[in-house]
Write a sequence for this structure.
């Protein structure tokens, strides 16, 4: 008879099902939703998770990082040293995350596309890929994507002859007037 007794104020339920603290949560709660775009790529990404550092599984880090560093080098003549150093630090964070296998296959693939757009000087397309990465994969990219965004903006602002990365050692004829004013601004 004690089994059928329900304590006043207690929620109704079967008397033989006491709350078990070790029991898993109800099925309705389950894991958080991954989003409609996240389900299919994650299924494809599982095989590559076993070998995240191999080139055959995904895009190599050098394919993405080399052009980004080249773009940074081409910006050094016109962009403040502190800004360039910050971008460089963030690219290092990206490189470390890539090497440690912390980036999913969709992020690696989109970064490869972003770099291709950057190399072709398709600034709006590169910026759109940057935004989509920030929205869809914020936890993976938030620490370093700010540097990529700034690099896109600074590369876009360069005179057209310097954006290919080959003008980082010899300035074009136009910057002859600009560098005389910038070093004075950098050195207070």
């Amino acid at each position: 008879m004690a089994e059928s007794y329900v304590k006043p104020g207690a929620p109704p339920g079967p008397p033989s099902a006491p709350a078990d603290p070790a029991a898993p949560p109800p099925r309705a709660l389950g894991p958080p939703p991954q989003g409609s775009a996240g389900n299919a790529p994650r299924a494809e990404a599982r095989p590559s998770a076993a070998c995240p550092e191999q080139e055959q599984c995904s895009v190599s880090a050098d394919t993405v990082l080399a052009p980004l560093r080249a773009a940074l080098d081409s910006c050094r003549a016109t962009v403040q040293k502190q800004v360039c150093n910050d971008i460089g630090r963030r690219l290092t964070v990206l490189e470390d995350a890539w090497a440690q296998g912390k980036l999913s296959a969709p992020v690696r693939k989109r970064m490869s596309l972003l770099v291709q757009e950057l190399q072709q000087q398709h600034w709006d397309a590169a910026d759109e890929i940057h935004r989509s990465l920030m929205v869809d994969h914020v936890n993976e990219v938030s620490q370093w994507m700010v540097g990529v965004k700034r690099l896109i903006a600074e590369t876009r602002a360069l005179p057209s002859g310097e954006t290919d990365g080959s003008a980082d050692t010899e300035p074009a004829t136009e910057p002859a007037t600009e560098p005389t004013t910038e070093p004075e601004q950098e050195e207070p």
Remarks:
- The longest helix spans residues 81-99.
- Confidence is low (pLDDT under 50) at residues 36-57, 164-188.
- DSSP finds eight helices and no strands in the chain.
